[in-house]
Amino acid sequence: MASTQRVVTGAAVTWTVVGDDYRVSEPVEQYLEYLRSRDCSPNTLKSYARGLALWWTFLEGRAQAWDAIGATELGAFVGQLRRGSVTEDVVSLHERTRVADATVASRARAVMGFYRYHAARGVEVAGRLYETVRARPGSYLPFLEHVARRTGRRSSVVKVRVRAKPMPVLLPDQMVSIRQAEASWDTVSGAWSGELRYRLLWTLLEETGLRLGEALGLRHRDWKTGTGTTAQVEVVYREDHPHGLRAKSGHRRVFIGSELDRLYGDWVWALCEAGADVELDDWDDTYIFCNLHRGRRFAPLRAESVYKHLAARKRDVPGLPPDMTPHWYRHTHATALLLSGVPMHVVSRRLGHADIQTTINTYAHVTEDAELRACADWQKITHAWGSRHEG
User: Fold this and answer.
1) Is-above-0.85 flag for pTM?
2) Which of 108, 130, 156 is the last residue of a domain?
3) For residues 217 and 223, what is the distance between their CA atoms, to the nearest angstrom?
4) Quick one: pLDDT band at residue 267, thresholds 50, 70, 90?
5) Which of the pair, 354 or 168, is modelled with greater confidence?
6) What is the three-class DSSP state of 279?
7) Alpha-carbon span 210 to 235, nearest angstrom
8) Which of 79-83, 171-175, 268-272 has the lowest mean pLDDT?
9) Boundaries of each Core-binding (CB) domain copy (predicted)?
10) CB–CB of 288/267 below 8 Å?
């Protein structure tokens, strides 16, 4: 059975796939190295490696070469992914819990990306798994399709349909509740009591829509405090984070409000009271979100620690969704901006999407719902219609 293998080289962490003979799968490694050359994050590499390990297990179970397959084998693989086992060809008569469509699509996407890469390298079988699709006259063309796709679009012959569902969002009362549970201002002592670090983190995610990895990767030099100008944080692409975190979308600036800026100032003061200004050699180069109670003091906070802390908060704070994750703040931020009338391209830039089509695909339902709600007052619409007719 093939498996994923974590590989550490110096400070860098990556993943590869090892076959049942305990050797690295060379075709898979070639593709993963291509992804590394494109600066894919370790988490993306891990996800793709998992999908390809399942595919390699599927092939090994059938004693089939990777470059001698077709759409039939890919279809069988997707079917077994849905049933939760890539080693069983026989369909069980007992009902099983089906794997989520999004998980199946993620695994299949890794396999199809693998073959698309090898198709570009001239592997014949890989080329047969894609077809060139040209738009019919009069058919709808996606954004800038007329510029970028004049020769047709390369489309996979195997497609996994994922049922669309609205992105999860947090309600204003829920976000207030978790902030208050983290830390509150004591008017008597004139100081914060509680976990000010996490109050700052949740407020930052709520107001900026940053990914958790982007927030944890912020250094003090990246926070530009407002001194006569609007405060901002700079999201900077770096590859030297001790826990492998990096900005997924490269460099961008995100403007923030004065209250969030003051909260950051209070956190800096709290760090100085804890001795950070004495212990740290280069303040500007240290991470904003750091350890205080466990591990090495002032070392960068791990994403796993944030998830563990959030799990405890969900037990303590009534009304928080049990499946809430830090990424919900990002969806909430985008949804709030779109509902307030902010143009889609502005939201796309603020979120750091490389392509506005990503924003449209993810949040199109928000603007559609807002437009459809305008049709709710049918009497008002027909009255206006009648007035125009009479005129």
Assistant:
1) no
2) 156
3) 11
4) very high
5) 168
6) helix
7) 9
8) 79-83
9) 22-119
10) yes
On the question of pLDDT at 383 being above 70, the answer is no
Handedness of CA 290, 183, 324, 172 (dihedral sign): negative
Token reading at 168? 């999860």
Secondary structure class of 120 (helix, strand, coil): helix
Number of folded domains that form the chain: 2
Beta strands 3-9; 130-133: pairing state: unpaired
The answer on 332 and 237 residing in a single domain is yes
Same domain, residue pair 333 and 364: yes
Lookup result for tokens 């992914």: 81
Tokens 């906070």, located at residue: 301
Contacts of residues 173-181 at CB distance under 8 Å and 24 or more positions apart, as own/partner, are 173/319, 174/319, 174/320, 174/321, 175/202, 175/206, 175/329, 175/332, 177/317, 177/318, 177/319, 177/320, 178/202, 178/313, 178/317, 178/320, 179/203, 181/313, 181/316, 181/317
CA–CA separation, 65 and 62 (whole Å)? 9
* The two structure tokens encoding residue 81: 């992914």
